[in-house]
C-alpha cells in the first residue's frame, strides 16, 4: 500500500469515527435517539447550564453535531462541516470547563478531543475517499477554510459569551454566606 493510500485511508477512518460520534450525539438532542432526551429534554438541560433559549440552543447544537458529523463522515463540504462541529464542541467544552480537563471528573476532555479532530479534518481535508474528492472539491476550496472557521468562531463567541454573561448575572443576584453557621454557635 502506497503512502498516499495509507493517508487517505487514515483520513477516511478519522472522518467516519469522528463524524459518526458527532452525528449520534446530535440525533440524541434532535430526536431522542440512542438514549437522548430530544429537543424538549435537551432544551431544559441547555437552559439549566445557561444556554437560552433552551430549545433553540438544543436545536442549534443538534444541527451542528448531526449535520457537521454526517458531512464529515461523508467527506462533503469538509471545511464547513469541521468548523460547525468544532464550534458545537467549543460550546460543550465551556459547560464542562469548571470541572477540569479529564472526562472522568466531568471535564472538557471529550468535547475538546472531538472538536480538535473535527477542526483538524476541516484543515487537512477529507482525502481521496470522499464525496468532496468525487465532486472535484466544489465545496472544499482553500478559501472556505478560513471563512468557515471565522463564521463558526464568531457564532460560538457570541453564544458562549452570552451564556457567560447570563451566568455572571445569575451569580450577582445570589447572596454569599457571610458567616459559617458553626462559628455563630
First CA to last CA: what distance? Answer: 77 Å
* Structural category: mainly alpha
Shape category: elongated
Mean pLDDT: 94
Major sheet: size, sense and barrel closure?
Answer: none
DSSP helix fraction: over 70%
Order of helices and strands: HHHHHHHH
Please report the total strand number as a whole number: 0
Radius of gyration: 19 Å
| Parts with pLDDT < 50 across at least 5 consecutive residues | none
Q: Helical segment tally?
A: 8
Task: Bin the strand percentage.
Answer: under 5%
Question: Which descriptors apply to this entry?
Answer:
185 residues, mainly alpha, 0% strand, elongated
Description:
- The protein has 8 helices and no strands.
- Helix content is 72%, strand content 0%.
- It is elongated.
Short characterization:
The protein has 185 residues and is an all-alpha fold. 72% of the residues lie in helices and 0% in strands.
Q: How do the strands and helices of this protein lay out in sequence?
A:
Layout: H1 3-31, H2 38-48, H3 54-74, H4 78-96, H5 109-124, H6 131-134, H7 144-172, H8 181-184
Amino acid at each position: 500500500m502506497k503512502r498516499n493510500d495509507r493517508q487517505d485511508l487514515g483520513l477516511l477512518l478519522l472522518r467516519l469515527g469522528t463524524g459518526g460520534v458527532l452525528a449520534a450525539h446530535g440525533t440524541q438532542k434532535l430526536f431522542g435517539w440512542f438514549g437522548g432526551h430530544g429537543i424538549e429534554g435537551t432544551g431544559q438541560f441547555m437552559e439549566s447550564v445557561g444556554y437560552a433559549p433552551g430549545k433553540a440552543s438544543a436545536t442549534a447544537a443538534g444541527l451542528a453535531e448531526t449535520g457537521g458529523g454526517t458531512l464529515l463522515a461523508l467527506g462533503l463540504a469538509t471545511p464547513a462541516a469541521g468548523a460547525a462541529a468544532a464550534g458545537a464542541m467549543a460550546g460543550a467544552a465551556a459547560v464542562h470547563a469548571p470541572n477540569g480537563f479529564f472526562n472522568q471528573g466531568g471535564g472538557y476532555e471529550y468535547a475538546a478531543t472531538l472538536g480538535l479532530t473535527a477542526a483538524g479534518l476541516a484543515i487537512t481535508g477529507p482525502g481521496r475517499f470522499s464525496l468532496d474528492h468525487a465532486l472535484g472539491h466544489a465545496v472544499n476550496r482553500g478559501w472556505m477554510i478560513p471563512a468557515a472557521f471565522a463564521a463558526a468562531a464568531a457564532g460560538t463567541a457570541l453564544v458562549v459569551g452570552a451564556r457567560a454573561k447570563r451566568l455572571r448575572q445569575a451569580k450577582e443576584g445570589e447572596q454569599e454566606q457571610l458567616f459559617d453557621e458553626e462559628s455563630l454557635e
